[in-house]
């Protein structure tokens, strides 16, 4: 059920093109005829009207030509009122064409005029217009700033909503609220979005507003997707919450469906064909998403499809019509295949093949007629993809190259350019033209890298589709680079170049995953742009993994600039995943007498044995892992070498990092003398889940206080957000030690620390607290979390753990993959801090020493316990800076 409901309601690259709300054009988006004043001439008036008629027909370039001619006349006569009117019309038209810069330029001219006239209601409305442009181009923070500001309780002076309310401009207020709801929806703030949109929907004369009803449907559907993700996150640790989240998701889907049904009825009543068509398309997609939930009659989908097809014939040519034709042509036969169409082939389309091709050709013809490069690119590219799926590569290649050409003509179409470059690479690779394919993959990669910050952090809808439309570009390019590197006709120089290129691609994927996970406010600052061999020490090796469908690549990077690639081909993904799951389960069992190292041996043999001779030759002492997917779930320290009867940690110090480029590799200062200790040692309850007391915390704190005498403790009720803010503002703490339950879910909303008074502290909030304290965050060398719980079974949960140091703004994190409530934790932490403070060891070496002490527990009189079982020591992993 989960997988079928996770997909985004809309193809992400069409979100701002076809599903953007009609709020503004409905409220005050009608086109103005120039005012009849004495200076008016019949010719100018005629030009204005001709422009309006051209616009209504979708002939935007003709409309611009008419209005620019009229504008020349008004400028010669210094007719400022009519100049403002024409500029407003031009702004709306360029917005239809997707020309953001010209649209903003004309709106700024209009705003300046109404400022000069002290017409504040008009100024407020124009601010709303401008904010909508920023929202639709992904700059939602800028939009919210113009509409209201960051404070959701009181809008800042001079914002659109504040002006409308002060001037009692009800229409302007409704439009600003609606646009604010849209901006928050795009950010993923669905509760706030729904609050604003429901306010508009319930206001006088707005209950039959099809634009608001569409926006509400989008917001409720977005929140339903989020509930489904939270249900999956709760599946492994809170089944009652899982069922609650599923129910909430279905409730939100029902409201979304009702909103769209109302929107269709209202648009039909008003004879607004394009609005009715758009509502039908949205309804069809929502019906696909919810077919397994029995919310809708499956036959309803077919009814709406036929109604949408009929409306296509009745709707004047427009950009929206082009995208509607593309959407209908791409519908699969079943909801099982309802996913991004751009890189996956449906077994069968919903509509007959002849009708599908006819819709694509109509879309191409209309887009070209409108002289719109962006929509022409999409129509050509999607038809090319259809031929790609049919293995008609000649036609696919010709259409895809045309799509690339059109996308390259418009700066606003760069988000489509990478799709068609990627598609060209796939078409060539399918024909075994690997070197030519590599060229197009590299072009797609370059374009995507330029766009990455915008598309991964600004639109929550896009985050849902990351695994469909972004991640495969990186993976397929990396696989092609690695396969070319190992082909027989590659010389050693070319071999190393391809391996280096693959490492760069993998690193970019890691950064993209972190940005996608944390979303809107993820701040990634590169610390190291040097070649890898200049970053790592002479006794350190970096092991990077990347998972493909049929095999796993293991790349070893050594300090002597040598790199080696090993393919894990004798195990498919599912087999290795099962072994890792069994391995973790055996560790968690805590039963020394029954513990078998078999799974640990199998994983060691698959990953370490093929590269171990190189580690021995280079006298490597520290291994830094940059893991992929489910491999992040592996406590690498507990892998077992059956030949030497040793755990990996007995042979090497071990650390992990998300990306070397994002890791600050400055060594730990020897002047560390204090830690801020935050603890919740008493039992707590969050979302009906009980988190048990940490009975051994007093021992843990006693050990910390002995090593760092100047440490400060905030425990239980004192462990509150305000106290934390105050403490780190008053003093510098190189180490922040947190002894509380920490849960890492598959979305940031379910990644949190349990603090006093049964409250949550999210990683996002912790990061904000640290970063808002001036330069204090730069002094946080180490964040220690000793009672973490990472959800198993989903790669994103461990991604959240891997990204904790980055998002919290610290250089390193020491965290546990599972909570170990035992005095073994106090022993391990005490040894780790002691070695870190007094022996000159690196963090990785200090952790190794602490783990070795527990492994040797039975030989140490003061411990003499069962702590040699890897349950007690392998849970702890070092993330980020290992020095």
From TrEMBL:
Keywords: Coiled coil. SUPFAM superfamilies: TPR-like. It comes from the Bacteria. Residues 598-881 form the CHAT domain. InterPro entries: CHAT_dom (IPR024983), TPR-like_helical_dom_sf (IPR011990), TPR_rpt (IPR019734). Pfam families: CHAT. The keyword Coiled coil applies. Residues 431-461 form a coiled coil. The keyword Coiled coil applies. PANTHER family: RAPSYN-RELATED (PTHR10098), SLR0380 PROTEIN (PTHR10098:SF112). This is CHAT domain-containing protein. It comes from Trichormus variabilis N2B.
